[in-house]
Amino acid sequence: MKDTFTHQGMRKRLVETLKKKGITNPDVLAAVNKIPRHLFMDSSFIGHAYVDKAFPIAADQTISQPYTVARQTELLEVKRGDKILEIGTGSGYQTAVLLEVGATVYSIERQNELFKKTKLFLPKLGYRPKKLIFGDGYKGLESQAPFDGIIVTAGAPFVPKPLLSQLKVGAKLVIPVGDKVQIMEVYTRTSPTEFSKEEFGEFRFVPLLENKN
Question: Which residues are catalytic?
Answer without folding.
Answer: 64
